[in-house]
Amino acid sequence: MPLRNPFIDLSSYNPDTKEFFLAAKNQGALGAVVKLTEGSEDGSAYVNPKASAQIRNALAVGLRVSCYHFARYTSVADAQNEARFFVKIAKQFGMYDDTLMIVDAEVHSAADYQSASLAFLQEVEALGYKSTGIYSMKSFFTGGVLNSHGFGQRKVWVAGYGVTSLGIDNAAAWQYSDHGIMGIDTSYDFDGAFTTGSASGSVPQITVPAPQPVQHVGYPATGTYIVQPGDTLSGIASRYGTTYQNLAAINGIGDPNRINVGQVLKVTGQPTSENTYFVQAGDTLSGIAAKFGTTVSNLVSRNGIANPNVIYPGQKIYLTGQSNAYTVKSGDTLSGIAAAFHTTWQALAGKNHIANPNVIYVGQTIQI
Predict the structure, then answer these.
(1) How many CB atoms lie within 10 A of CB 12?
(2) How many whole angstroms separate alpha carbon 70 and alpha carbon 135?
(3) pLDDT score, position 4
(4) Which of 122, 200, 230, 315 registers the highest number of CB atoms within 10 A of its CB?
(5) What are 319-361's pLDDT values in tens digits?
(6) C-alpha to C-alpha distance for 300 and 263, rounded to whole angstroms
């Protein structure tokens, strides 16, 4: 009979104490898969802030520890970038070369998701980690998004809740509940890769290449997030390890309580004077040009746009000639800006949807 060894998987939403892992072990857990990263180094550059303690304390109580990366890639090249970021952080945490390295592929963000996912795993292996696998939901495998037999001998870990059969004959593990041991995601390990043995070997010494520039066509740019129903700016900020004030500043948001479903937000970086805009649904290049006091030809030239009639939500547009825009600097007040541009703070507050005229942020774009 195959094994049915229980193991848990964790992210920053879960505890990181030794007491937690000891309790999980006492409830039957034999392994832990810890989220390390999400996206790419030149994009979201997200690292789980609890990963180090989760790894250390899971190992301390004798659990087998594996690592996973939450995929956001939109192409093979993007997947390779994300794999490099994953490996770079794994090496920083001292993970040995026989650590099981999983890609969490549950966002169908690439036209050929199979090829991109395989490229991710191949890059991880090329950089010195010899044991890899893929996690996704049952529907991706049974619906044709992913082919479980297209990953060779790599581990296939499938999420399927409330089912008695996965319908996938080569699954190495089955995540059967998101409220299992300690009330969190719990899986069965069928072949021992997630739960048996202990890490050995050494940290890979292969140099991790720098991320390569990637063209994101028809998809939100790396480092951006599309607002979903129920989202708040503070909630999005927490997810990406930043503050709502920073998100407001880098996105030119006057009222942090006012964001719209479908809005594309930049979620990485710090406020700068760089004039950029992320295309929103319904935008046209001529409309963007008019909004920012420039011309379509300027935008086409600066952004290398082949067809000015084809732009995509999430596309990053570099702006020029922003005669009607001002970037807030340290020490600025709305009344001071208004005086400098011969207008009133009330007019600026209304035009920029600023709820509290006493609260503006360094880096915020003010339309004059």
Answers:
(1) 17
(2) 10
(3) 95
(4) 315
(5) 765 456 677 777 888 888 888 777 888 888 887 778 788 888 7
(6) 23
Structure tokens at 150: 């297209």
Q: What is the pLDDT of residue 271?
A: 65
Residue with tokens 């040009």: 289
CA 271-354-270 angle, 5° bins: 10
Residues 96/64, Cβ–Cβ less than 8 Å: no
Distance between CA atoms of residues 118 and 127, nearest Å = 14
Q: Would you tell me how many other CB atoms lie within 10 Å of the CB of residue 104?
A: 19
In three-state form (DSSP H/G/I as H, E/B as E, the rest C), the secondary structure along the chain is: CCCCEEEEEECCCCCCCHHHHHHHHHCCCCEEEEEEEECCCCCCCEECCCHHHHHHHHHHCCCEEEEEEECCCCCHHHHHHHHHHHHHHHHHCCCCCCCEEEEECCCCCCCCHHHHHHHHHHHHHHCCCCEEEEEEEHHHHHCCCCCHHHHCCCEEEEECCCCCCCCCCCCCEEEEECCCHHHCCEEEECCCCCCCCCCCCCCCCCCCCCCCCCCCCCCCCCCEEECCCCCCHHHHHHHCCCCHHHHHHHCCCCCCCCCCCCCEEECCCCCCCCCEEECCCCCCHHHHHHHCCCCHHHHHHHHCCCCCCCCCCCCEEECCCCCCEEECCCCCCHHHHHHHCCCCHHHHHHHCCCCCCCCCCCCCEEEC
Per residue in 204-245, pLDDT (tens digit) is: 999 998 877 775 444 556 677 888 888 899 999 888 888 888
Instruction: Output the six-digit token pair for 167.
Output: 């319908």
Token representation of residue 85: 């970021």
What does the mean pLDDT of the chain come to?
A: 86
